[in-house]
Amino acid sequence: MLFEKPKWVYICRGAVKLDLRCPQRVDGVAADPEPDWSFDALLSELNALEMKLTASFTDPSPTKTTPRGLSRENEIERSRPFILNAPDYEMEDTESEDEQDKAIVGGKRFSCDELYLSDSDDSDVVSAFDVQPLLMEEAGEVEGALFELTHEHQLRVKDEIRSQISALETSLMNESEKSASALRRVEKYKEARQELDRKFDTQYQRRIAEVLDNHLTAVQQERELKSQIEERKIRNDAAYEEAKRKEKALQEEKLRQEKAKAEAEAKLKAEEAKQAALEAERRAAIEAEKRAAKEAETRAAKEAKDRDAASSSQGITSGGMQQAAVHPTDGYVYRAADSALTVERERLQKLKEIFERNQAIRSSSNQNYTPKENHIARLIRQIRGVTDNVRSKAGDLIKLLNDSQCPQSISVEIFARKVVSYCENPGNAAFASGYVIVLVTAQVPQLMDILLAELHKACIYTVPKHLVYKQSTFESREAYFKRIGYRESDGNIESTEDYLKRLESYIKVYGALVQTEIPNVRNLHGLEAGWAWLARFLNTLPANKYTAVSLNAFLQMAGFALYRRYKSHFLKLLKVISDNFLVALKQKEPAMTRTIVEIQSYIEDKKFLQEPEGKSLQSNLLSSVWRS
């Protein structure tokens, strides 16, 4: 392929356009490329052309080598600033011109008038190589130098781009490795944290399980202990009842033996009939004397009762306490009001009658009443200061007392004995017990006298009365202590401190009972009885440690209700206590400082204006319900 000598055409901006007088495309190779080709597209096109030329080149000659020592790559790079385009009169796109003018520094114009085209691709390639040296030789030195400078600049730019790309790739790889390493560290840290959290969770769950197990164990032990205590009490009560039955059987057997012996002696001494007659006359005279003395005593008690009622209704005068009455009974001397002793005898007689009746029932029947007794005792021990608890326990006790399968007299006796046994506990719910007693006795009225009789037997100061100590009457101090209620265990008398605590518990329950007022429910032993007790107490009982503890406990429980009912009369009683009872107590019992201070503080601080703690039942109490 032959090319004619190129023609240079200079335009206004210094750019040169090349116009070819030959076909625009030969074997897929464009002679006049598109003006908007990119640099990469032109490189790819030239590389394709170079490959074709290399493949078709068979006999290169020295004349066809690249001039000025330029490689084929330099030729391709050198061809970069040339832009092949249409003739001058076809340039219309101003934007393309601006871009091209910036990139073009020189150009060549050549024509292809003498170009020989053949059907063979090889001939085209050979012709191109034949012409190329001629084109390069025709270029001037300035253009060649400019081309070399441009080529060197492009190489430098490429090297810089390659170095920057390599540096970027290296940096990216380093960053990727750092990110991967950091990610691995994060994953390891995450796994370590998860493992640590699992360990902490396991330890926490184990600790919770241990604490829960300890708590449940403690609760179980407490319940077992309570169950053992209840079982021990039940066994003790059963043993006590069994001992009483055995004692009764022994007494009956002894009575039968004595009766048989008496009959035998009577038969053997038939000849002594005259002496027996004289003995009978003597006994008759003694009986007549006893009847007369009893009638006189009854008349005196009635008169004393009337006098005591009058003094109770009018209160105690400001002159001080009245002279105490002294009553010898069975060789013992008591300080008490006649009316109080009379009421006590009547109640004790009722208790004796019901006891004898129950003994006859038990002896004639083989029925076991122990479960009934245990049930009543358990209900009484479960009394708490909560409204629902009080009403439920009272309802259950009323059902048991009215149970047709058990005689009511036995249930009444058991109830009275168990209530009094519960009263001796210092931690008893006194006000709640008063509510239960009032509710139960309102449905079973005969129960009140039996309960009070049991309370009088347990504590003589609930009558109230005081046993006077005399050496001529008692063999020792221990005998006196036993008579007024001290307990004996293993041959030892309990301490005075323990006795006073139990005495205080009895009086607190009695004081709570007399002040209990329930709407639409009648209290058979209410505030009138409490007022009478306080008047008789101050009229007849001396000031000592027993009466001081009793008076303090009664005022703490019933003083609030008595003041609301009797107002100024109650204040007069408090003045009598302050001016007489406390003065005498300080002289006789100086060691009772704590009790003296409590009574004096109660009066001076007017604590009777404050409702005592526990008087009003709570509506609900979860802990109490749980304990019940």
Spatial extent as radius of gyration: 64 Å
Spell out the helices and strands N to C.
Answer: EEHHHHHHEEHHHHHHEHEEHHHHHH
Q: Total strand count, please?
A: 7
Number of domains: 3
CATH fold-level name of the largest domain: Serine Threonine Protein Phosphatase 5, Tetratricopeptide repeat
Integer average pLDDT: 77
List unreliable stretches of 5+ residues. 1-18, 58-137, 307-325, 621-628
Q: With helices defined by DSSP (H or I, 4 residues minimum), what is the helix count?
A: 19
Can you tell me the CATH architecture of the largest domain? Answer: Alpha Horseshoe
* The first-level CATH class name of the largest domain: Mainly Alpha
Strand content: under 5%
* Straight-line distance between termini: 123 Å
Organism: Senna tora
Keywords: Coiled coil, mRNA transport, Nuclear pore complex, Nucleus, Protein transport, Translocation, Transport
Protein name: mRNA export factor GLE1
Family: Belongs to the GLE1 family.
